[in-house]
Amino acid sequence: MGSPLRNLIFGVFYMLVVMLGAVVAYVSAGWSIADAVYMVIVTVYTVGYNEVQPVVSPLLRGITITTIVLGCTGMIYLTGALVQFITLNQINQVFGIKRMSNQIDRLRNHIIVCGFGRIGVMLAKGLYAGGADFVVLEASDTAVAMARSLGYLVLQADATDEAALKAAGIEHARTLATVLSNDALNVFITLSARSLNPALEIISRGELPSTESKLMQAGANKVVLPTHIGAERMAEMILYQETARFIRGSDRMKDFEKVLLSLGLDIQVVVAAPKSPAVGNTIEAIEQQGNGAFFIVQINRRDGEPVTRPEGSTVIGEGDGLVLVGRGGQSKAVGALFEAGARTAFRVSAR
User: Which pTM value belongs to this model?
Assistant: First the structure.
């Protein structure tokens, strides 16, 4: 009986049994159900109104006395259990928040995740699985409760508030990831975080492609465009199914991709769009123009023929798919070379 919840459940069950038994007793003595229920309620809650019917017989007096003793005792117990349950929950919440704040204060070289929406949940799950120390900043009551239930360190606060960033230990953090769905808020958080910790690595989410430059100017080290990435992956799966299966499908390649990420590299498939600067040029020329941002490890010809380990003199054609390995944040260099209408001057050309 040491659990407040168990005490509360027992008290409710006890009172239901006593009240039901008293109602049955009054009905057996000839009262109507309505009169019996009313009499039991005013008795156990110690209201003390007049009896709905005269209590004159020894049987009725015995029923009433028993209801008073058992019912009032049960109500005292139930009230105490309810107060204990509410009070202990509040105390546990206060001490839980205090304990969490102390844990955050002791963190060093940790990660701050601003936002616990769809992407924030996935990010936190990956960080937790990797054993990384991180703190979630979230304003929503529901999202905060979810994060706490998963065992994450979380502060219920507005990430755009500098005080909240300081409470999350931004001075001692190594990385901040702002993954809100609002581009303007992500820009504002990036500006605030950069001013509070100039050495901080900031990874920002952007919804619109035009926001990428704003986030970079605000101080972000890397910008992730989930919609753009999702569209690229879908095109990759449609156009180059075998390559997509090769890169993403096996556990071995997933492990290899993790190794690349730990080295600051990633692997992707891009398409040489018609009239893009890469079309008609050699791999060597393209890699030189990219200034070392990436190198090409495989070509998938438009007719479906793959070219593994291509020579530097291999010429890229329209619609060819290229498997690139390069540094993170290479999107600008890739876009300048492989997107239609982009302009760039090649130092080396096959033409």
Answer: 0.50
